[in-house]
Amino acid sequence: MLEALQKVKDVETHLIVSTGAKATIAYETSWKVEDVVALADVVHDERDLAATLASGSFQTHGMVVAPCSIRTMSSIANSLNDNLIVRAADVHLKERRTLVLMVRETPLHAGHLRLMHELALTGAVILPPAPGFYHLPKSVDDIVDHSVGKALDQLGVEHALFRRWAGVPKDE
């Protein structure tokens, strides 16, 4: 997401890396946390509830929580506001700004689905990173790009991360 947004003019990115995200980056990717942080224009501590993102008077075009754990989703759904991720998400909902939650856990039980339903009614976009395969991905990066591109679509950010559906190819 940050790599794609770096290529877009006039976009200032703000990043909050949770403790869980740091562990996920280390375990699931070849990235170092410092390298991910270096991609953002502004970095906030998840404990800083006085950060700019904690106020509705700080203007943003939207927010993406990626990946979004069930714990974070549940905190957002219940407006717990116990860390900056949840507070900033709550601000986006109350200010009617785009909030995209890339919830990635499966399977989901009825409680998860109920919270997702409540969040959708509140205005959140629930966008699990479940890629389509119509663009015929050839690598894991292609699959990731599809999910990132779908999130950028929700923010109205133009990109060329995947081939858009153009219908079934006609035999010639």
Please tell me about this protein's structure:
There is one protein chain. With 172 residues, this protein is of the alpha/beta class. The protein has seven helices and five strands; from the N terminus they run αβααββααβαβα. It has helices at 2-6, 19-28, 33-38, 70-77, 84-94, 110-122, 140-155, and strands at residues 14-16, 42-44, 62-68, 98-103, 125-126. The strands form two sheets. A three-stranded parallel sheet has the order 3-4-5, with helices on both faces. It has a two-stranded parallel ribbon with strand order 1-2. Helix 4 (70-77) crosses helix 5 (84-94) and helix 4 crosses helix 6 (110-122).
Helical content, roughly? 40-55%
How many helical elements? Answer: 7
| Contiguous runs where pLDDT drops below 50 for at least 5 residues | none
Structural class: alpha/beta
Question: What oligomeric state best describes the polypeptide chains here?
Answer: single chain
Biggest beta sheet summary: 3 strands, parallel
Q: What coarse outline follows from CA principal-axis ratios?
A: globular
Give helix and strand order, one letter per element, not per position: HEHHEEHHEHEH
Could you give the count of β-strands?
Answer: 5
Mean pLDDT score:
96
What is the strand content?
Answer: 5-15%
Task: Using the CA coordinates, give the radius of gyration.
Answer: 17 Å
